[in-house]
Amino acid sequence: VMREGCCGINFESIREPMVSNRLSFVIENLVGTGRVNCCKDNLFGRPLLDNFCSIYRSNQRKLKRSLVYKVDANRGVSCSVGLNRIQMGLESEELAVKDVILLTNDDGYDSILLLKLKERLTEVGYDVVTVAPAKDQSACGQKLNMNKELELIQHTKDMFSLDGSPSDCVIAALEKNNGIFTRNSYRARLVVSGINRGPNLGSDVFYSGTFAAARQAGYYGIPAIATSFASYEKLDSEMIQSTIDAVIQVIEFAWNVLPSSLPNLLRTELALRDHHHEPYESRNGNESTGIQDEANGPLDLLRAAFSHGDLLLNLNVPRDWNGKFSVSTLGTLVYRDVLQVKDTASDGRSSVRIGGGKLITMHHPKTDVTAIEDNFASVSTLNSWPETHPLQVAADIMKHSLHSCEKNNGLPLW
Whole-prediction pTM value? Predict the structure, then answer.
């Protein structure tokens, strides 16, 4: 039983076999006081625990504090809320791992959009850890600083900067051995990259450090969202507020479709899954499955692909957002006249500069470019893996990612 003000959890008349002598679970953002009663003849197993955690996560946004319960098979355990993390029961218990959002970007750890997003996420109840570049890394793509010593600075308990690229930051955070999360007992449940200052539409994703960080998270089996403010205009408080509102909605959408635990965290398995195989229709013996939400149907497979880190979301929010989303494919952007060259010196040296130029767009329906021009926030579901890669999500499953849900403000139906 969980309600605002107090929490009582009684496991009565439960005789399921113990998976182990000790089970631990995290109750996050709890209000009031709590008690867990457990004795030798009143035990609970993993199925019940998973069910409880699933029910809890669906309501956790309403709760306010954080507490760790340790349950021992041979003694009762109880405590009052007050500290962020409390060790209980056995003298040598390990501290439970805490599920968090990893926040990064390519504009730098001191970017106003990143700081404001972290502030809002914390306000609505998420635990957030930031690992972001020490300085601007825009348009660095999937760059890695190989075999270089990079300075890592811990500014606060949950804010780190790294003198490297966005992908470097994700690796520094998530690597199982010596990673920031391992050393601090964090576990990434979702990675959010951004909010980028400027659009990441169409072919921008090939150059974007913001998008690259989200893709890097997918390599670790962690679902991710790349987020961008699709304008270079000077930011004001209303623009920031509107953009963060859109980002929070997409984060909530993504968080709610994830299972209670990620199925391939840190990419410990490389086996192919149902969402990698095609054709879906021939496997199921029919020409068209429609868009029914059924077990092992296309929408279910899209959710599975996202939870495995094989899909990521690319969100762009326009300057004058109309409050709605558009499920989009990548559009066509072509940059022309981007190279400036200074006169060549007598010794053959010259200097060149890449940037600016003309932007040419092609207008096709249902693309991110068109959505932004119509003041919709574009949401694109994209593969984490390159074309023809064996872990790429099958094309006939991907086509179902283009269905939207009007009841959910135009967000993807899956």
Answer: 0.76
